[in-house]
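note to self — DONT lose this again. spent like an hour looking for the file last time. sequence + predicted structure for the chain T wanted, 365 res
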Amino acid sequence: MRTILIMFDSLNRRFLPNYGCDWVKAPNFERLGRRCVTFDNAYVGSMPCMPARREMHTGRYNFLHRSWGPMEPFDNSMPQILKENGVYSHLTSDHQHYWEDGGATYHTRYTSWECFRGQEGDPWKADLNPAIEPEHLVESQPKPKNPFGSARFQIQDAINRAHMAREEQMPQPQTFAAGLEFLQTNHMYDNWFLQIETFDPHEPFFSPKEYQALYQDIDIGYDADWPPYGPCQSSEAVVQHVRNKYAALVSMCDRYLGKVLDFMDAHGMWKDTALIVTTDHGYLLGEHQWWAKSIMPLYNEIAHIPMFAWDPRVGKKGERRSALVQNIDIAPTLLELNGIETPPEMLAHPLKEVIDHDEIIPDVL
């Protein structure tokens, strides 16, 4: 079996036409819905970034054991199990937490992996100019003054952006280009798993002007695309300005999703290649008077996530499923797709029967 997993970070389902949004331009997500089964009740387990990824590796809830952290010695890892059973696993990602302390034992479980630098405050390019000051924070998030203090994270992002004058220099395009290179090289072979994972549309909502031009320019006196993690006390104009920046980045994600769908179309891969598209969690953009995630209650804008799946053995497409599914189900699903028995430590179950006829998955606890 050939399997592709496309992961976005902080993708709010309410910004997708598949879930009723009528103003965000995402034609390739609509196309994805026609090609796949759409899950109406996909929810987070543990979050944010690395707890969610530990669940995708292990098929069990991260918060039964720890908060944010690396893979444990006792953990089963889905890509490693694939590798040990003759299935080549490859990760291409710009998600900088994979290469940091607390996340650095995930990417090494794949047979091979590629990383692309520059997202958010990734300590990438060096510029010690003390005059560098980010201009893209929302009004309730003070602009940092000390480039060597705690504000270095935001100043680093401003430095990184200076090295992305062209779209192809940005991390997401590089991540998808590497995934497409893997497909071009290996689409004729069998027994591989490709994970294309981009940090977008995680904040800051930085995208080329081409995508921002798709949405109304709301003049708030400055260009803001990085909300704080906390209460939203901004005006309606600021909130809509930031939402438009987020929507522009979603439209950029849509474009690169479309490149993978184009490749699958061009090479007849739907007949023997499985596809899963999802995210780790959603994001609050002023709803319930909050920005972002993690410190507030888990409103549905955060907890209720998009998920799509195509299983060529089942052949169901353009249909919707109501059964409860979560990202812990990804690991046993990928193992089952490749004829590998699920380890007993994995509490989740494969999605095949849900995809086929909306069978309810047994409780994992």
